[in-house]
Design goal:
Mean pLDDT: 90
Shape: globular
Number of strands: 14
Strand content: 15-25%
Largest sheet: 6 strands, mixed
Strand order of the largest sheet: 9-10-11-12-14-13
Structural class: alpha/beta
Radius of gyration: 22 Å
Length: 386
């Protein structure tokens, strides 16, 4: 039996369960929501709405469903019965001071988050679960290389069984996603067109979003491209990183950057099947930036570090900017092992645009084994220390 890899959000889940009647655990398919919920709440009952019979009763006869599955209970894939939310509200209000009674999981953020504010406002705590972070993996696999983590991705099943072929896993993952989640979220005339759209997004990961270009390359309308992009966001497959800008600096780019949420899926869609492929790929820089973005998202969400943005104007760019209370971290992702003074100069120019004394940290996140100074206050740091 493979050892359990602890998740950074376990304490957050337990804390919310003591403060709220409902805890909602959301995230992409196969990121480990069910395993985590059952481990953190071993004394709760369990039912999954992946079973059509359970989903139908939860939707059509929620009172009988809740009678059969009384709290405390984990309801898995709750988005398949949106009608259940209204009846959960009644069940919660009948014992309003009892917390942690319902643990809900779901992989479709759009339908899930529509039901929560409408029916469970003020009653639910929400946690979003990504795949494994590098620090979570390193606690169990101390010799893990960041390049391996970037290529293999963050899906728990791939690390629970390292003999699994990652390409075969992601092939099945895409098929499952297209056939199940996509059909539930949107009527798509051609699944093949949508798969081409997903691959087109992959080729543009870590780039400023251009919906018109995406639409043109796939042969769909810009309106359809926007709708399909929203579906990918809702099912936690892509992430849009917003730019940092102020009204005083009108030259700043105000369009988000597009990232795939999982660098392993990105590698699969780009045809990167081995570390040799990665080292030789012209997409290595984009894959690395996507991986670093994922790591920073996980860390900023699980800590009080600040909010994640990027910076770009007509002449200067920093891949990532973390802001908290008027203080900044300016960060750039570099695929190389030893970035130099020229790389640091790019970050330095962005630092010059921020208020004096506001930059508390500046770094080049690269494949180096140890942190070292590059230029002024700017350091090269391994992704473990990002």
């Amino acid at each position: 039996m493979e050892p359990w890899i602890s998740r950074d959000c376990e304490s957050q889940l337990r804390k919310l369960a003591k403060q709220r009647p409902v805890v909602v655990l959301t995230g992409a398919r196969q990121t480990g929501k069910t395993s985590l919920a059952r481990r953190v709440f071993p004394n709760h009952g369990y039912v999954t709405l992946d079973l059509p019979s359970e989903a139908e009763q939860a939707e059509r006869d929620p009172q009988s469903f809740l009678h059969r599955h009384p709290p405390p209970v984990i309801v898995d894939e709750v988005q398949y019965a949106p009608g259940l939310f209204r009846h959960l509200k009644s069940a919660i209000d009948s014992a309003r001071t009892a917390n942690g009674r319902f643990i809900l999981t779901g992989s479709q953020k759009f339908s899930l988050m529509k039901g929560v504010p409408e029916s469970l406002a003020g009653r639910a705590g929400i946690v979003e679960l990504d795949g494994f972070s590098l620090s979570e993996l390193a606690a169990t696999i101390p010799d893990i290389r960041p390049e391996e983590a970037a290529m293999r991705g963050s899906m728990p099943e791939l690390w629970a069984n390292r003999e699994l072929d990652a390409a075969a896993y992601y092939q099945a993952y895409v098929i499952t996603y297209l056939e199940r989640d996509l059909r539930a979220l949107l009527e798509v005339g051609s699944l093949r067109d949508f798969e081409r759209f997903l691959r087109a997004c992959a080729l543009r990961s870590a780039q400023v979003l251009n919906k018109a270009e995406l639409a043109r390359d796939v042969g769909i309308s810009p309106t359809t491209a926007g709708a399909w992009l929203s579906v990918l966001e809702a099912s936690n497959q892509v992430f849009l990183l917003e730019p940092w800008f102020t009204n005083k600096t009108k030259s700043l780019v105000k369009t988000p950057k597009l990232f795939l949420c999982d660098s392993g899926l990105l590698c699969y869609l780009m045809g990167v099947r081995s570390l040799d492929d990665l080292y030789g790929s012209p997409y290595a820089g984009a894959i690395w930036e996507t991986f670093v973005c994922g790591e920073l998202r996980k860390r900023t969400r699980s800590t009080d570090r600040g909010d994640l943005f990027y910076w770009r104007d007509r002449s200067k760019e920093a891949d990532f900017l973390i802001h908290k209370a008027g203080r900044f971290e300016v960060l750039d992702a570099k695929w190389g092992e030893h970035p130099d003074s020229k790389d640091a100069a790019v970050v330095e120019r962005v630092m010059g645009e921020l208020p004096d004394g506001s930059v508390k940290r500046a770094a080049l996140i690269c494949r180096t084994g140890n942190a070292y100074p590059v230029r002024g206050k700017i350091q090269a740091v391994p992704v473990f220390e990002a």
